[in-house]
From TrEMBL:
Transmembrane segments: none annotated. It comes from Entomortierella chlamydospora. InterPro entries: Histone-fold, TAF12, TFIID_TAF12_dom. GO terms for cellular component: SAGA complex; transcription factor TFIID complex. Keywords: Nucleus, Transcription, Transcription regulation. This is TBP-associated factor 12. GO terms for molecular function: DNA binding; protein heterodimerization activity; TBP-class protein binding.
């Protein structure tokens, strides 16, 4: 067991991007009386590392698609917003987000109305 602030968390897994202490702090913010078992902390560390790796790889592919050799916030932001529904506070996403209003043809609307009316009349006749 490591003592908080000892720096030994990073010695245990130097490639980890988040520490056990940080996970403990986040849990304490939610419920100060809650304590995680070491195995649970290890799994959460692994999940966090995999998530960060996945997001970074996808953002790098977006940057490459833009024909850029530099990873920018908008690359990470686009992936997080579109695929994970995670917003990055402090960064405007209006330039990234394309607003598409779906236009439903009136013929489709009429068909849906007819189906709903048929369902209602069947329900009323029972």
């Amino acid at each position: 067991m490591t003592s908080p602030g000892s720096g030994l968390d990073m010695v245990e897994n130097p490639s980890s991007l988040i520490t056990k202490r940080k996970i403990q702090e986040m849990v304490a913010q939610i419920d100060p009386s809650e304590r995680l078992e070491p195995e649970v902390e290890d799994i959460l560390l692994e999940l966090a590392d995999e998530f960060i790796e996945s997001v970074t790889q996808f953002a790098c592919r977006l940057a490459t698609h833009r024909k850029s050799s530099t990873l920018e916030v908008k690359d990470v932001q686009l992936h997080l917003e579109r695929n994970w529904n995670i917003r990055i506070p402090g960064f405007a996403s209006e330039e990234i987000r394309s607003v598409r209003k779906s236009t439903v043809p009136s013929s489709h609307t009429q068909k849906i109305t007819a189906v709903n009316n048929a369902k209602a009349s069947l329900a009323n006749s029972k």
